[in-house]
Design goal:
Layout: H1 11-35, H2 41-51, E1 57-59, H3 60-67, H4 71-83, E2 87-91, E3 99-103, H5 105-131, H6 135-149, H7 160-164
Antiparallel strand pairs: 1-3, 2-3
Helix pairs in contact: 1-5, 3-4
């Protein structure tokens, strides 16, 4: 029996638990859908982030920050996507230390095929129910939380990579 006033009864634990349970359930459900297209959730996230970025590219370091993967983790995911022809790598013409991940036409085609059903599932499991309770406020709250927990998560999304790549060399794969 938990005593009243015990830290175990703190509503913050309930909120965090509900958030974790919801995220785990959504992650599992979307993973099942993505597996039907041969993609792991991290691979899907990389493809979507690249496709939604200016010119379809991001520095590997920015991609790691946005996905919360480690540098070696993002390298492994991008390696798998390069092997499948969904992403290429491109060296930066002005900084040899910088490499870009670039979504290919094949990567975009795969997203075009899977996104309609994926978006329907997100509508059913997440967005639809939230529309009934104040979706805009929820989204703003998520942005606030994301910015506090992961301030680098939007790195590279404002086009700075595109400016650096203006004089880039041809794509480098592998």
């Amino acid at each position: 029996m938990t005593e009243p006033g015990s830290p175990l009864t703190d509503e913050r634990l309930t909120i965090a638990g509900l958030f974790a349970e919801t995220w785990a359930s959504l992650t599992h459900r979307t993973a099942v859908h993505l597996a039907g297209f041969g993609l792991a959730p991290a691979e899907f996230e990389v493809c979507v982030r690249l496709a939604r970025s200016p010119e379809g590219l991001l520095r590997m370091s920015d991609l790691a920050a946005q996905t919360t993967l480690t540098s070696s983790g993002i390298t492994r995911v991008v390696d798998r996507l390069v092997e499948r022809g969904l992403v290429t790598r491109r060296a930066c013409a002005t900084d040899r230390r910088t490499t870009y991940a670039v979504i290919t036409d094949s990567g975009r085609d795969l997203l075009e095929r899977l996104l309609p059903e994926h978006l329907e599932l997100l509508e059913e499991w997440l967005v639809g129910p939230l529309r009934q309770r104040g979706l805009d406020e929820f989204v703003e709250s998520l942005r606030l939380l994301r910015d506090l927990a992961a301030p680098c998560a939007t790195a590279g999304s404002e086009g700075e990579a595109v400016a650096e790549l203006a004089a880039a060399e041809p794509a480098v794969t592998g």
